[in-house]
Amino acid sequence: MTQPTDIRTEHLRTALSLAAAGIPVLPLRAGKVPFGNCRRCADNACGGRPNMKNAGPCACPGPCHAWAAATTDPDVIQSGVWRRAWVRASAVAYHPGGAWLTVVDLDNADAVTWAHETLPATCTVPTTRGEHWIYLGSMQSANAVRVGVDIKSTMAYARYLGPGTGRMSELPDVVRALTVKDASTIRPAPQAITVRAPTGAGECCHRTPTYLDRGIAMAEQRITAASSGVHATVYRTFLAVLSTHGRCGCLTDTHIARLFAAAQTKGESARHCTDAWTNAMTTLGL
User: Fold this and answer.
1) What's this model's pTM, rounded to 2 decimal places?
2) Beta-ladder partners of 29
């Protein structure tokens, strides 16, 4: 059974509005689940994006691969195959990590009480059974970090339930610590960066302030999701960031610190981060 026309239109309108703000979106079908892969992508035959180990472009025009299908491209969102999905959609979802956001999903009243007692205040959105607390910053997603609490950020999707209330706060360490299972896995705090942001006079391609932030967020995600070859991933990511953003002079020490912190969280030393950054700049002639 399809949704009434006004609801379908509202879902599409909401998706386009979020996409314009730099938030990658995707449709959800009944049961709050993504649409299944098409025949071309079934069983990951396309070699595409079921998880970040295989992440990469998929030629499929449809909303396949769950969170990895999320997009900000209005042409894709309004394309024929996506429009057919919106006809059947029951909700709009988004990829928090792709927008440099983290959602603390509080699934019951006890979890909400715990959040009020433990976490810094931030933007909150009511849900059917609890609340979403939304922070500015991305991290590893994890389910059941405590009773009734899930973390939705990278490699995950969250249902869009409205803009919420309150001012969004920076992602605090107390939330990041929720995914640490054992004290022995805690890594030393990232060291201060020892490189300078590049300066340049090239043409700036940052159409909106979110363009650069989203690029940095996706780079953080790429590093965080590396399951092997971390050294190479860090270097290639630094190279990609500098190739896109290094010539116009918009990169700041804060942006670099975010990349270094992501790399050090994966076990990279500050020295290796500095070497990788320097090598990438040399390769690009910056």
Assistant:
1) 0.63
2) 33
